[in-house]
Design goal:
This protein has 588 residues and is an alpha+beta fold. It is 29% helix and 26% strand. The relative contact order is 0.14. This is AAA+ ATPase domain-containing protein. It comes from Wenyingzhuangia heitensis.
């Protein structure tokens, strides 16, 4: 930023005549000073509500925003169309102090207001050149200012000549939320941010709830979209055990232990079949009998029948030996490495009580009857045509989503965007929340492995209120889905940055929303939504939030930890527009 003084006498408009901790008041010696004028080709707006001003203090300068204008009571009574054009008036303005800066080094900002202007301090119109340098430097250290990637984002709402170029680090470095009611401009904002990230050569993954960002597929900077249930699937083996519980919803103390035991048994089968050549075994049609050496050195039979571990009437000791050998894999609840199509049969095999060193030969009727509803739910999921494609229960030519993500992250080509389409994912069984949470968990584990340390990733979640529910629950079951909560809390230092977009911030879990450092707020009308933003954003104030209900399409208020002041702006129209237009009624 240039250190040229922002206090130009040709920009003078008034004096400070009242100072409070929240705001200052300005006396305009003449209403003429409030009118627009040109200065060296720059159109200066004068004293209008929403305009920025600079105030000259003794040691510090101050940047402020005009919130309110009025005339003294006596002059208000004399006001008429004729007198306004022929007589001088002396307006008074209310100005919010946004930040302070060193008077001889304006580029050095003091984020806290440790001092305030004094009575009689001069007030000047803020030039666009002076303020736009501030926007570019927000969130960037002095050493990184020349190299930090920026995004050409828009212009001030009240001054189209003041362009707003923002640091990508400031926008996403502490996670970001784009909020606003339908039609407020969220989709255009996301598209503009995607374009900015692409221009800087960074990588981004977007969960697209409705398919409105598929236009980016036409560009060479975008990978082919992965549309779940159409051309790709999320491998069920990458679901955590808690994800499976959320999908199948076993009842508390009755069905959950049986399901967990069945999963452990099938994991043992998976390990044995993988390491088959290490064991002595016999094979007869659909039955494989493994000879497992137990503690005393003898060998006992462990029988796998039609892909399931048979327990009825068999010894427990070979099962225990296999369990302890593969305990790390079996107890790894982040993966589900087993043949899920055998789960129903394995649950039935679990309905045998232990009797001494063996399982009983007769079925435990109580456990069997208690499992009936669980078996029906599992059967419904495994035989649902959509779920077969979504989770890879039945694979044709669909792409493995996890492998595609890994390829995208590791590739050095110019592809910068990977779109994961949820437009064909059904809403039943809360499968959308489970899927999004599973993708989030995978990226979370990658971040913990420091995959993104040198090449940070921005992870967009559109229509986040559809996915970021606190839990999946019914009358008998409840499971927490907290991947995004963990990403928001942990992953800033790992280089995984979350950007959520929602029209209902009140539905976003508090744990996630409280970790968001940057808010781009379009029009918000609902009181609870406004309060959710106000409570989560420490830089928000009531004067700024008062503008939220009256913002036009594409207009937004930018607030954040790395932004010393809220900024009211108009987002630039993106080059690639999202498919978010409202269908028109037609006369027939």
């Amino acid at each position: 930023m240039s250190n040229i003084s922002p206090f130009n006498h040709t920009h003078f408009i008034g004096y400070i005549n009242q100072v409070t901790p929240q705001f200052v008041k300005v006396h305009f010696p003449s209403s003429v000073l409030m009118k627009s004028f040109s200065f060296y080709g720059e159109q200066l707006k004068g004293g209008l509500v929403g305009n920025y001003v600079v105030i000259e203090g003794e040691q510090f300068g101050f940047l402020g925003k005009i919130l309110e204008l009025n005339l003294p009571e006596k002059e208000r009574l004399e006001l008429s169309e004729k007198s306004f054009n022929t007589k001088e008036f002396h307006p008074v303005g209310k100005v919010e102090i946004l930040l302070s800066f060193e008077i001889f080094n304006p580029s050095k900002i003091d984020k806290g207001l440790n001092s305030l202007p004094v009575i009689g301090a001069k007030v000047f119109i803020c030039s666009s050149e002076f303020i736009k340098d501030y926007f570019k430097g927000f969130g960037v250290t002095e050493n990184d200012k020349n190299d930090a990637p920026t995004i050409d984002f828009g212009h001030l709402t009240y001054d189209k000549s003041t362009l707003i170029e923002l640091s990508q680090q400031a926008l996403f470095g502490r996670h970001c939320a784009i909020v606003g009611t339908t039609g407020g401009g969220k989709s255009y904002t996301i598209s503009k941010l995607l374009e900015g990230i692409v221009s800087n050569g960074s990588k981004t993954i977007i969960i697209d709830a409705t398919g409105e960002y598929n236009n980016h597929d036409e560009k060479d900077y975008s990978e082919e979209s992965l549309v779940l249930s159409v051309n790709s699937y999320f491998p069920y083996s990458r679901l955590s055990v808690s994800d499976l519980f959320a999908l199948f919803r076993p009842a508390g103390q009755v069905q959950q232990p049986i399901l967990l035991e069945a999963i452990k048994s099938l994991k043992i089968v998976h390990c044995l079949m993988r390491d088959k050549e290490q064991y002595e075994f016999t094979e007869d049609e659909n039955i494989i009998t493994f000879k497992i050496k137990i503690k005393d050195g003898s060998k006992k039979d462990l029988i796998i029948e039609k892909g399931c571990l048979k327990k009825q009437g068999n010894e427990i000791s070979p099962f225990d030996r296999c369990y302890f050998k593969y305990v790390d894999e079996i107890e790894d609840n982040t993966r589900s490495d087993f043949e899920i199509l055998n789960l129903i049969k394995q649950i039935q095999n679990e309905c045998f009580q232990i009797n001494g060193t063996k399982w009983n030969t007769y079925v435990d009727s109580r456990n069997s009857s208690n499992s009936t509803s669980l078996l029906m739910r599992i059967n419904n999921v495994l035989n649902n045509d959509s779920f077969k494609k979504i989770f890879g229960f039945q694979i044709n030519e669909e792409i493995d989503l996890i492998e595609a993500i890994n390829t995208f992250l590791q590739s050095d080509n110019k592809s910068s965007i990977l779109r994961i389409g949820f437009e064909k994912v059904p809403f039943n069984f809360q499968v959308r929340e489970i899927l999004a949470n599973a993708i989030g968990n995978y990226l979370l584990n990658q971040a913990r492995s420091e995959v993104f340390k040198d090449n940070p990733l921005v992870f967009f979640v559109d229509e986040a209120h559809q996915f970021l529910n606190k839990s999946v629950k019914d009358d008998y079951f409840e499971s927490e889905l907290n991947a995004f909560n963990s990403i928001a809390k942990e992953c800033r230092k790992y280089g995984l940055f979350l950007c959520i977009a929602t029209q209902m911030p009140r539905d976003i879990p508090n744990g996630t929303l409280s970790q968001i450092g940057t808010f781009i707020s379009h029009r918000l009308i609902n009181y609870q939504d406004k309060e959710a933003v106000a409570n989560a954003c420490s830089t928000a104030n009531r004067e700024t939030l008062a503008f939220l209900p009256v913002l036009g399409a594409g207009e937004a208020i930018l607030m954040g930890v790395d932004f010393p002041m809220p900024v009211m702006l108009k987002v630039k129209t993106p080059e690639i527009k999202p498919n978010s237009s409202t269908p028109l009624f037609k006369k027939r």
